[in-house]
Amino acid sequence: AEEEEMRKHVVLTKPFSLDDEKDSEHTTSNLIQRILSLFKNVRPGSDLTNFQLPPQLNLPGSQLQCYGEMIYGFNGPDFLGECGRRDKPIERLKAVVTWNISTLRPLIFGMAPYNPVVGETHHVSNGHINVLISHHPPVSALHATHEKENIDVTFCQYFTPKFRGETYEMNQPRLVMTFLPATGAHWAGKIVIKCPETGLEAELQLLSDSFLSRFTGNNKRSIKGKIFESSSGKRLYEIFGHWDRTVTAKNLKTGELEVIYNASENIAKLKTPIVKNLQEVSESESALVWSEVSEGIMRNDWEKASKGKRDVEEKQRESRRQREVSGFSWIPKHFSVVRAGKEWDCVPLQPTVPRAPIVVPL
């Protein structure tokens, strides 16, 4: 009965999308008020050994949910599935570029999701896409499969999607936070997508959303790049636009222009996932682990949120103490996780991700 009661507190939140950016909860003035609230609990000589980020500066969701939303959080075309429906290698790479752009999401300066705890998982399905994320300190591993197009995506510090026997290796952009002359958080840097089997490559540059760039031109969230042959360097397409608006590809042979991505169709008005099968929700599910914290944040009940956060962190510490006493190491349930030099290698233990008890409604 006690276990069933706990299972009832699965709290799911709406993914952050384009239409949420003007939310008054996330304005700079509101953020400053929240930061100032920190000082109410800190006094000269206070013991900061176990100081935690207050829930006032948390988004109501785990970092694992943020990772997962990059894959399942869309409300338009199935760009991941499209990568398997193209016949020509150049069209497949162009589809991978489009899907990669679709994973970019707006950022909220000064607000952070919860740091996941060891063994925490997040399992959600959207259409034919099934996503499973698991936390293995210091890394998180993601596995997503597409039931219809035989597509496999793994994530461990970097993306390694695989389509139709071809491997696409790609990195992620940098997260940049600025404080002066204005606060802000944005994506910047170069994304490189390579396909060793076809010898095709794409480079995308996310232009800095700095004060200077905004003063000199409309570069906010702009993107430009190219698709080319790796061996010869021959340019095949130019890519340009804004990842929160539209992105266009220009065929350099024919001059044809094609809008390959429209953000308003894909990451606006995102739907909140729902629990389809309560009995199958794992005890390690993010929406269950952090339910009390999320509930408190959404109701502005900061006492409840703070208590919930302390409970999660104390349970984590107690679990670690028990493992140390018993001499047992924690073993990941869904992935094989090994250190490979300075990097980490995460391999799913199952070939496909099963349907999740939590789904994105149609």
UniProtKB/TrEMBL annotation:
Keyword annotations of the record: Lipid transport, Lipid-binding, Transport
Pfam family, one: Oxysterol_BP
Native organism taxonomy: Eukaryota, Viridiplantae, Streptophyta, Embryophyta, Tracheophyta
One example GO MF annotation: sterol binding
One GO CC term on file: membrane
Keyword Transport part of the UniProt annotation: yes
GO aspect biological process, one term: lipid transport
Descriptive protein name: Oxysterol-binding protein
InterPro entries: OSBP_sf, Oxysterol-bd
Organism the protein comes from: Thlaspi arvense
Homology family: Belongs to the OSBP family.
Domain of life the protein comes from: Eukaryota
Function field: May be involved in the transport of sterols.
